[in-house]
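Q: Here's a chain of 373 amino acids. Please give me its 3D structure as tokens.
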Amino acid sequence: MNLSTLTQPRIIKVDCRRLIAAAAIVSAFVAAALPLSGQVQPSVGLINPRGVAFSPATGKAYTVDQGRGVVDISDDATGSTVLVKVGAGPVSIAVNAANGRVYVANADDGTVSVIDGKTDQVVATLAASNHPYAIAANAKTGKVYVSRTYSDEITVIDGATDMATDIKTGSPDFIAINAKTDKIYLLGYEGGTISVLDGASGTISKMHAGMHAWSIAVNETTGTVYVPKSGGAEVVAFPAGSTSFSTIKAGEIPCALAVNERTNMVYVVNYGGDSVTVIDGGAGKAVATVPVGDRPEAIAVDVMNNLIYVANTHGNSVTVIDGANYQVLATLPAGKNPYALAVNSNTGKLHVANLDDRAFTIIDVKHIRKPIQ
């Protein structure tokens, strides 16, 4: 969910359970989220940090356009863009590496659109119901997992057959997958409970990150699970196979994070501090704080080039950080209120989903510096 909209009037369906839970954290956001005079404000509504995704198999980026009910498909090789009609209110996208298809969660009509990566056509529309929100695909098994805002179940789609089944897991807001272990981590901000679904057996175990948990990421190489806690200005880290966690200090209102599995570094976006905390995953401690733009909300790591991209939602820009020395290489103009990022490491094209523009911006970042050899 978009932190910058918490102080804005919103016309959406109301889930009382989530409204009560959110009330406990709004007070922490208000001081940081109140706009300066004349500052550009993002639109109201429910948005998702997975509003854009890149497919290495096709070389294409897929960006939701919620208002028009379409997905913009950008081909980096040709520079062309096509619009594909999907369901009502698309909010998030997952690329399924197992079959090359793209899955789109349509919040307003309770469906998932399936796009063929080769033809750019919708080949199936699957029922998900109850306001699908988060979506993620397991690259090894081909299964796709969809959270549903007004349900205590998730929908699991078999990528080979498009058969959908429901599993009672609680109602998560964020999904992270460790494809190597076939573990699916489902985080609900109500109490910070993480339901851990074993993809093979279907069994569920629980971990508890505590109140104000916001977003989740897993290092598939080490198995460590990371959860930022916005109210406590910290990140909790669960070692592989453990339900106990260590605490790592972050900046003000940490709201998103990303992992570079090659270097074992973790990058945490601090919405209230206009900064990124750099965590050494091996040492389990913060090693640097990097200033970025106004009210950052999303982050992406280019593992191949060891670059970090941060969407500054109120600043209408993207900050590029050098992973080798934690220095800012550039702050580049984006569209209005960027909120999600995906990068093509081979071509150096950064795809940015914008809240107040026509869906997306493409930024050429290939000359930022040379790739790692």
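Q: Can you summarize the key feature?
A: The domain at 47-161 is CATH 2.130.10.10 (Methylamine Dehydrogenase; Chain H).
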